[in-house]
């Protein structure tokens, strides 16, 4: 029986190498091996495949075949991997130190372990040019680009930080979750002697993406919108926040009651507010069932409800909302198609593409790379949808991994995608 299953894998033709077969021989039906597959733009080694070639279909990251992987996070041009043992690996571009390794390496083609993390890590997150990790004790470490204070290390910190640095101003605060955008960060905390679920944000505050509202000086001039250390989002006090997401210029969070709050860029009705100005403080979005998960992209937002329904709204360039068209959607609209039969359990947004997990299968849609990317020798640097081409898809399409493979996690970068899979 196992020979037949392995034979099915070998016929995939999707970059699943023979090393993948050796992984499965180690499983023996006792503990299933989890592995990473990546696809899309391969510049600077962000796919971790030992080369810079773009991949139009999923390819196993064989360099981590001996690691049982837990999670993946794709950033601008780099990727973070988290193992079950709490170790973190990074690959791709390192121009701002976002890999957490030696600054002498401007990029790496295969994942390297980050050695500057002293404790077991339970969560990782990759922003456009910065990265983070949370320990089992709730300690937050950050590294990478710090030009707008997005690392939360204070005004005197360096603009580039190449090694994981503890956010010392949070010494008495335990962090549950952190989300990284282009130049800002948002976290959920567990405060000593207080209930969990306080929301903090820091970094670039343009367009109101930090949720702190406009503040003017005594003379009436607008203060700098950047925050160099984590700051409590006061508007959300009284709401126990359970999940957050950070996009290009906007942010979102969901409280314990399943209500969703959005703040940041909303010009041209992109985010469904009905006004052209920015929302500098969190505003609750109505007309939605109880929400469980939220993801922010370039200019679009996705929400998964408690019943596993997917709603999307905002800019719909290249069909990234998955509703069969490219028209801007100003209010949440349910994405049906394949999700009618199986509920959605995971969602992730890239700049203009989206990925979801439903029924153990990864679905992707939106920008495939055929427009807006450079080509080399006639070959597009896209393929982030994983459908063996670089065209746009306006509706969710399943990514083919082969038989008996179950998706556990998925993450969209700027124009690449990664997933954690398990052979069932």
From TrEMBL:
List the keywords (alphabetical): Repeat
> Which intervals hold domain RCC1-like?
38-417
Q: Where are the RCC repeats?
A: 34-85, 86-137, 138-191, 197-257, 258-307, 308-360, 360-423
Q: Which domain of life is it from?
A: Eukaryota
Pfam families hit by this protein: WD40_RLD
Q: Does the keyword ATP-binding apply?
A: no
Q: Which PANTHER family match?
A: REGULATOR OF CHROMOSOME CONDENSATION, UVB-RESISTANCE PROTEIN UVR8-RELATED
The protein depicted here goes by the name RCC1-like domain-containing protein
């Amino acid at each position: 029986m196992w020979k037949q299953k392995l034979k099915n894998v070998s016929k995939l033709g999707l970059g699943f190498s023979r090393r993948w077969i050796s992984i499965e021989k180690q499983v023996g039906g006792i503990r299933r091996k989890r592995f990473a597959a990546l696809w899309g733009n391969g510049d600077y080694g962000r796919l971790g495949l030992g080369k810079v070639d773009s991949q139009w279909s999923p390819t196993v990251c064989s360099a981590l075949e001996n690691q049982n992987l837990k999670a993946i996070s794709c950033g601008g041009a780099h990727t973070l991997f988290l193992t079950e043992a709490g170790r973190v690996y990074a690959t791709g571009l390192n121009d701002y130190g976002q890999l957490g390794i030696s600054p002498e390496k401007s990029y790496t083609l295969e994942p390297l372990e980050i050695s500057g993390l002293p404790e077991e890590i339970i969560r990782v997150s990759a922003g456009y040019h910065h990265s983070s990790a949370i320990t089992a004790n709730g300690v937050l470490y950050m590294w990478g680009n710090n030009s707008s204070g997005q690392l939360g290390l204070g005004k005197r910190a360096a603009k580039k930080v190449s090694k994981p640095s503890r956010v010392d101003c949070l010494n008495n605060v335990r962090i549950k979750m952190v989300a990284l955008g282009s130049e800002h960060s948002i976290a959920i905390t567990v405060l000593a002697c207080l209930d969990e679920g306080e929301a903090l944000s820091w970094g670039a505050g343009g367009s109101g993406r930090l949720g702190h509202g406009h503040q003017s000086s005594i003379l009436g001039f607008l203060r700098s919108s950047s925050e160099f250390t984590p700051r409590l989002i006061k508007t959300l006090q009284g709401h126990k926040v359970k999940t957050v997401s950070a996009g290009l210029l906007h942010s979102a969070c969901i409280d314990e009651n399943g209500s969703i709050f959005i703040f940041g860029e909303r010009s041209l009705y992109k985010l469904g507010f009905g006004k052209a100005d920015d929302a500098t403080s969190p505003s609750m979005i109505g007309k939605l069932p109880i929400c469980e998960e939220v993801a922010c992209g370039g200019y679009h937002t996705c929400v998964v409800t408690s019943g596993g329904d997917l709603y999307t709204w905002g800019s719909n360039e290249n069909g990234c909302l998955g509703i069969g068209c490219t028209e801007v959607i100003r209010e949440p609209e349910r994405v049906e198609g394949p999700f009618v039969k199986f509920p959605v359990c995971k969602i992730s947004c890239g700049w203009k593409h989206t990925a979801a997990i439903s029924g153990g299968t990864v679905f992707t849609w939106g920008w495939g790379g055929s427009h807006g990317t450079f080509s080399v020798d006639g070959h597009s640097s896209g393929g982030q949808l994983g459908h063996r081409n670089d065209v746009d898809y306006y509706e969710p399409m399943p990514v083919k991994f082969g038989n008996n493979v179950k998706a556990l996690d998925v993450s969209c970068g700027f124009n690449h995608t990664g997933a954690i899979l398990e052979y069932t």
